[in-house]
Amino acid sequence: MEQKVLLSLSHISKRFKTELALKDISMTLFRGEILGFLGPSGSGKTTTIKIITGQLRQTGGEAMLLGTDSTNIDASIYEKIGVVSDNSGIYEKMTVWQNLSMFAKIWQVPRARVEQVIGQVGLAEHAKKPAGKLSKGQTQRLVLARAVLHKPRILFLDEPTSGLDPSTAVAIHQMLLNLKEEGMAIFLTTHNMEEATKLCDRVALLHEGEIVEFGSPKDICLKYNRSKKYDVLLNSSEELVLEQNPENIRRIAGWMEHDEIACIHSCEPTLESVFLEVTGKVLNI
Amino acid sequence: MKNMHKLAAVAQIKWLCISRNSMMMMGPFMVIAMVEVCKVLYGIKSGGELAPVLTGFLLNLGITMNICGDGFVMVGTTIAEEKEKHTLRVLMTSSITGMQYFIGSILFPFIMLMAVNYIVLFISGIPFKSVPMLTFFVVSVVVSLTSCVLGMIVGICAKNQMNANLIAYPFMLIFMMVPVFGNLSEGLHRISGFLFTGIMTGMTERIAAGEGYVMTPADGLVLFGELIICILVFLLLYRRNGYEKD
Question: pTM, whole model, 2 decimals?
Answer without folding.
Answer: 0.85
